[in-house]
């Protein structure tokens, strides 16, 4: 077991290394002359040359890559081309805001989704279950920006209860922060809950077709207890896997939701930097998002293995 | 008796989703020939005018006809989604099935590349490539085709691996049939159905992915607009003409939901 986890950890580190190469290649080599790109087509040749020297573009790419990588590992992502300030100083507050949004969403969505999945499975085939199943499918196929726009239309434009723009500042108290977070979080919670609930339902459904459940049914154990106790216990592994994967999928939701609410998070920073072609900032944000995603996928894999009852037995032949 | 009648009658969700998709396809075709108004023409001085007779969905942020732009956007959105999904399947199916049949270094190398691609968040890949190359319809289609070909590769490879050790393939090999012939003549007919189901699902992902890029302002650039772009450019008018932003977003949701229902119905059908 420990071997498998170590092996997966090694593979993850290797993938991160490859990702860093790809991000560097995409941002510094793919566009051609980065200095020209940064300054736009009306820049004078002197300015372009000066920026090339300032960015060290006269040195070989491999040397620049290694310097960038070593710097990034130490938290030094270089300087922004637009604000000229260190990229790391732009990141910290944005990263905390995005972590807050994603964290609150996860804390609400995961218990809610598992509960909904379990309850609909208990009420299998009834009208409520059928309605819920179709709703889960519909909501998980709905773009986040439709839900977010509808929430803004209802709660900000028509009712005027909540702000349409999530303005967060360092001095704001808990109440202000909560009000600013409410709509962005709700948009994400709806989509994530639908996805996890749908998968919970599928996992429990496949467990319920196992022979030992049939045995329990024949013994006369009520369905509620079979679903809530026998099936749920064996669903923990796949569920942990599903949850970690969905938290990883939050990345794309966060990008859209931060846009619509002008939420001052990391995704918003990255989109702004893509628009202004501030490539050092794009590189840093891309690496942080990719690293988070890769680590969550690793976690999903490890959790699935840890909770898999088959892995508890000594089966050395399965080591690969 | 009853099972027979159930098998003949398609489920209501299947009928609903198929009808909706056909309708959207027809709208896209009609928009090639005729639109109620010129989608780039300013028909009124009033931005975000509420719906009125003849202007059924009102006007957008520049006073253009929302309905005409929505229909024009249908054409752009469907063209992008179909092209990207077709390319993803062309790349993924060919490489996946070839990897399954040939095995060896080719299989190992392709599988590792796919491992890396699948461990990247797609929207972030999109942002980085747009930062490097700028945005255009073809850049967006290219990004979607590549990121979604990885998932297609996995499925095609798994389907091919299941089939390749079957007796009839062994027999074909011993008859001296080449890899390409085995691929298209012997294997493809058996995997076409699961791959078609995957196509529908993948198309729904592609629509959501590309319209999200347009929604954050990095996809289709004005004055052209796909549905995601329309939802973005009209966000400011929620208080006077909310339809301008919400109608295109609902169109995306409906197509995506219809595709998912279709996949569910096809899966159910295959199981029974």
TrEMBL record, chain A:
GO biological process: transmembrane transport
Membrane topology: Multi-pass membrane protein
Domain ABC transmembrane type-1: 95-300
Record keywords: Cell membrane, Membrane, Transmembrane, Transmembrane helix, Transport
Alphabetical list of PROSITE patterns matching this protein: ABC_TM1 (PS50928)
Record-annotated membrane-spanning stretches: 6-27, 99-125, 180-197, 242-261, 281-304
Cellular localization per UniProt: Cell membrane
InterPro entries the UniProt entry points to: BPD_transp_1_N (IPR045621), MetI-like (IPR000515), MetI-like_sf (IPR035906)
Principal subcellular localization: membrane
Pfam families from the UniProt entry: BPD_transp_1, BPD_transp_1_N
Any coiled-coil regions, as ranges: none
Gene Ontology CC: plasma membrane
Superkingdom field: Bacteria
Family: Belongs to the binding-protein-dependent transport system permease family.
Protein name, UniProt field: ABC transporter permease subunit
Organism: Microvirga makkahensis
TrEMBL record, chain B:
GO biological process: one example: transmembrane transport
Origin: domain of life: Bacteria
Domain ABC transmembrane type-1: 74-263
Family annotation (SUPFAM superfamilies): MetI-like
Cross-referenced InterPro entries: BP-dependent_transpt_permease (IPR050366), MetI-like (IPR000515), MetI-like_sf (IPR035906)
Localization of this protein: Cell membrane
Coiled coil: none
Gene3D superfamilies for the chain: MetI-like
Homology family: Belongs to the binding-protein-dependent transport system permease family.
Keywords: Cell membrane, Membrane, Transmembrane, Transmembrane helix, Transport
Keyword Amino-acid biosynthesis: no
A GO CC term attached to the entry: plasma membrane
Topological category with respect to the lipid bilayer: Multi-pass membrane protein
Source organism per UniProt: Microvirga makkahensis
Regions that span the bilayer: 12-35, 76-101, 113-131, 137-156, 199-220, 240-263
Protein name from the UniProt record: ABC transporter permease subunit
